[in-house]
Amino acid sequence: MMLRFSVVPVALLLLTASAFGKSDAPLSPNFDYQALWSQCNGAARRLCPSHHIEDFTDGQYDDVLGGFLEGYPESMRARMRAIVDYPKTCTKEVFGFSCEFVASLAAFRQIGLFDKFVRYSCGHWRCEELSLCDRIK
Length: 137
Known about the structure:
mainly alpha; 7 helices; about 65% helix; about 5% strand
């Protein structure tokens, strides 16, 4: 009986370790941009439909991401940078920040911060129309 109970925690530890190891893997440049953006918008419409954060554009992406990430220690921000690896992930983007934004969404999903990011966006931003978004004080 003792052997049976000692194997279960070891198996759980191995499964947990492999899940954490996978979560830090760099993003593939072939992830589905549209699906991630749709998931974010769907979650935001359920949480804060009047805020219209689906109207974020290049003008807001950097501020929204920066505001969210500033609440985390440098170690987490470094982890995010390593996962996203913008120079490799966004090689096809010539201008703008849409790739960086959606790549960050993918990384948030990968490490379990996606829902927190949507809640942050809903709690801190409101858009009146496309590209006309303000930070809520």
